[in-house]
Design a protein that fits this description.
Residues 1-306 form the Lipoxygenase domain. The protein is an all-alpha fold. It contains 13 helices and 2 strands; from the N terminus they run αααββαααααααααα. A two-stranded antiparallel sheet has the order 1-2. Helix 4 (70-93) packs antiparallel against helix 7 (133-155), helix 4 packs antiparallel against helix 13 (238-263) and helix 9 (184-190) crosses helix 10. The longest helix is centred in the C-terminal third of the chain and has 26 residues, at 238-263.
Length: 306
């Protein structure tokens, strides 16, 4: 994992104070993991359904609750491309189900994921069994999605959407008007700007948060982007090379063109227009990410990158 800066390399009191949850961070994360995390819901379509942002129609196709939803619109294109690449790869190396179930190393790896990586959830019934083409493709696609596009959407959105501190204040320094006593709402109505400024982080805190978010949202100089680089062994295999170059890479490049069109479409109010930031976090690399003029929209890294 590429890291521009380690959180542990800077004093807790200086870098984390404007936004850090202190001793409760791991407790919050652990509670969320225990109550909500399921591997079978980490795939984008299933995640959208779980969050009430999509349903499956009678024909099995996904229907979005909000049509103009940039993360889902772009993400589903990337998800489909990833899944097709995984399907082509699995079909070549595992032409029948027996090849999957008889692969000792593959089954041992999946057992380790469940029993070591998620020991507290290893007995859950929702874990997929690697016993056929469909289950292996879905499993690999989910892992690739989470480590590449999902993380890119979360990580590289931090500065574009949170760098302007009033848009996403890292802390509230005073209580909400309703909690400020009987005069709280009156004071707010008389001088709302002052109350908001008193609520927002200080200038020092805001500048620090902006710097940290900018750093976290920047791409590594040696970044590898999804569908841009092949393993040498793939290049030497005609069928795999074709599936990667002619299918996966070309499909990702077409997705980039589509995303650019959507970002210029006046009908898409959630990504175009006054005050709106073009949604580029899931726009694939155009093949020359280092030629970009901005830290945003340089591509989707192949793996988690901070």
């Amino acid at each position: 994992m590429h890291r521009h800066a380690s959180c542990s390399s800077t004093p807790m009191g200086s870098s984390r104070a404007p936004s850090h949850r202190g001793s409760y961070s791991m407790e919050i994360s652990s509670a969320a993991y225990a109550e909500q995390w399921r591997f079978d819901k980490e795939a984008l379509p299933e995640d959208l359904i779980r969050r009430g942002m999509a349903v499956r129609g009678e024909d099995g196709k996904l229907e979005l609750a909000i049509e103009d939803y940039p993360y889902a619109n772009d993400g589903l294109l990337v998800w489909d491309a990833i899944k097709q690449w995984a399907s082509d790869y699995v079909a070549y190396y595992y032409p029948c189900a027996a090849d999957i179930t008889d692969d000792v190393e593959l089954q041992a790896w999946w057992k380790e994921v469940r029993t070591k990586g998620h020991a507290h959830k290893q007995d859950e019934l929702w874990w997929p069994h690697l016993d056929c083409h469909e289950s292996l493709v879905q499993t690999l696609s989910t892992i690739m999605w989470v480590a590449s596009a999902h993380h890119a959407a979360v990580n590289f959105s931090q500065y574009p959407f949170g760098g302007y501190v009033p848009n996403r204040p890292s802390i509230a320094r005073i209580n909400m008007p309703s909690d400020m006593g009987p005069d709280g709402m009156r004071v707010f109505m008389e001088a709302p700007d002052k109350v908001l400024l008193d609520t927002f982080p200080s200038q020092y805190q805001s500048a620090m948060v902006m710097a940290i978010l900018d750093l976290l949202s920047s791409h590594s100089s040696g970044e590898e982007y999804l569908a841009m680089y092949q393993e040498p062994a793939w290049q030497q295999n005609g069928k795999i090379n074709k599936a990667f170059e002619d299918e996966f890479r070309e499909r990702m490049l077409r997705i980039g063109v589509q995303v650019n069109k959507w970002n210029m479409d006046p009908e898409r109010k959630n990504r175009y227009g006054p005050g709106m930031v073009p949604y580029v976090q899931l726009r694939p690399s155009d093949g020359d990410p280092m030629g970009a003029k901005t830290v945003m929209g340089m591509g989707v890294p192949t793996s988690i990158s901070i």
